């Protein structure tokens, strides 16, 4: 009998109104639970499965829509995605909140009570990974036919515990229970080869190459739905998991090689075991290199398979596909696509290169030299011998062109080469990414300028047309609608709900900055959010803070360039002032809140955490200062924590050394929620200032040119220390072991580094930072003015929606238009 698909498709459709019934079905028949046996986790699972199934119909329909459109596809390649929890986000984006809530009411269930049961997906380190997650949300919301590719790490970023004031890393077992949001797609499994050697042969006198690898790993895809907001679109995030192929094992078993077979299997499956925690330490780097190739190889095969369904003429490839590289992590794709086109599809080299170059875009996310990837040639020789040959040949052709343009200039050849010769032979992945892409973009205006002028000036001179800027953005769905529902509701009440998909609409709020009633409601919402945060602080750290304190917040990865150190030195300074002058008056309590992870091998970052925690202990327990200052470090920073902290914040600390923070995106989340920024003229802070107005942001410190001049001159931090009594007092106090009575001398490395080098100009900016904080305190006293500024910040954040960013990528780089269903369908 032939299946009747019309009937099958129509049999069960999940209307929003019937979601509650499906929930009961799941709890009973899938979970096998009733009132006596169901745990809270069982209820969460049943709720989430219900929502997942509601998504599936839209997911299937989206695939049909895209296939029929024959549109060019966007492939976003990122080794990191910091998705956070998906349950609430999916309900909100589906627009199913009201119906689900009402349906469940009869059953006495409120879905929001169960959200903490979801294990959050944290497959990323920081800004780069969260940006990828915001981009997925925007691409789906904008009807863009995009697929995100990534790795399904068994362990995401480590869990941070604090033990005696030190960071301790624990594994994040996010897959321990079911991951409801993923679907295994075994039928799209792909092989990934490694090692071996390259054979040469000839066809019609033309030299050809055949890579004979030594072992194979399988890539198994797991798909996660990416729900667009209010448009019935569901895109896909495809994450690859490594597995060793069965046949391969069997062969070795049969030959009696049991131990080798098992260890090869473990080796292969280790590939996607763990996310690298932002570490550039040498150990374990080879695994990271193989991880990158595994990712690239799986994704490019999948992209090819999709392309071949549409066309068999590879010259069409750039018309049908555009591949965006999120940093250089997936840049081996360029060599991989060349290998496929030349060795497997037998295209002439020049044709293949033309296709490749037209198909890639590369986004740079950092100018820190230590973070620009270079891979030892040895790694290529061992694992990817054919790719190495291809890179050498690309380099040879490329340098030939460079020398034609710059006759006699050997220095430029050395600078631009894909191969760094000394001290160790390495491949410069950023150079490969630039020559292999049509577009190279930075992530804020200033960062894009620095890229052109300081980091890659030779490349900019050779290919000025490739360089462009795409200022980062954040999704207003997660960072306002979901994280701050009361503020979202107030905004919608005043200006309608268009802002959710067109953030520039927030401009309409400007007029309410002068409306007393609006300001009152705005303040009340902030206070409610602070109450929630105060509770969380008490639960997580045991520190009791006042609900109406000033919340001054720095939450981000711990890096010297982000200068958490300057912040805590300033807190120590305030503490000294309070102790010395006992001038408490009726000043409000100030809570200095920190959160963030340090890379496990980054000693200084870990010591900064220790310093913050030790200072917190002393200050929080000193009765002499009458609770006027509290210092809090909340452990295990993650997306869900940010969602609670940001809406409660008064002051957002964005204080990196000018020129170091490519963009920052936390800065945008805070301002969108009505916090005022204290910031340096760095990254997107500058653009935020231009949007909200100089009078509504607190900027301070040396700008990029001044920092550059200091670096080139002879900067003497020791002199600043001896001449500036404020700095001296703070450093002397630390050195006297006031904060480390039981571990004398532990902060010497921090003090030493500041006194002798101060690479990130903490002392140089200290006074300006202090004065800026004094100004802030004065201004905070005028609540009316403060709230006005906060409202204007919200109203003027339209530019920083990731929808705007993605629209720019789509129009300028990808040349892809939204795919919308035909009217009436
Ligand atoms: C990695 C490393 C490795 C160890 C040495 C120091 C170091 C410093 C930075 C990084 C991160 C590189 C990539 C990254 O996450 N960049 C961030 O990307 C965000 C999204 O574009 C942007 O907002 C942040 O400013 C940028 O730091």
UniProtKB/TrEMBL annotation:
The modification N6-(pyridoxal phosphate)lysine is found at residue 669. PROSITE patterns: PHOSPHORYLASE (PS00102). It is an enzyme of class 2 (transferase). Its cofactor is pyridoxal 5'-phosphate. Its EC number is 2.4.1.1. Gene3D superfamilies: Glycogen Phosphorylase B. One of its GO terms (biological process) is glycogen catabolic process. It holds the Pfam family Phosphorylase. Keywords: Allosteric enzyme, Carbohydrate metabolism, Glycosyltransferase, Pyridoxal phosphate, Transferase. InterPro entries: Glycg_phsphrylas (IPR011833), Glyco_trans_35 (IPR000811), Pyridoxal_P_attach_site (IPR035090). It catalyses: [(1->4)-alpha-D-glucosyl](n) + phosphate = [(1->4)-alpha-D-glucosyl](n-1) + alpha-D-glucose 1-phosphate. It comes from the Bacteria. GO terms for molecular function: glycogen phosphorylase activity; pyridoxal phosphate binding. GO terms for cellular component: cytoplasm. Coiled coil: none annotated. Phosphorylase is an important allosteric enzyme in carbohydrate metabolism. Enzymes from different sources differ in their regulatory mechanisms and in their natural substrates. However, all known phosphorylases share catalytic and structural properties. Belongs to the glycogen phosphorylase family. NCBIfam families: P_ylase. PANTHER family: GLYCOGEN PHOSPHORYLASE (PTHR11468), GLYCOGEN PHOSPHORYLASE, LIVER FORM (PTHR11468:SF3). This is Alpha-1,4 glucan phosphorylase. It comes from Uabimicrobium amorphum.
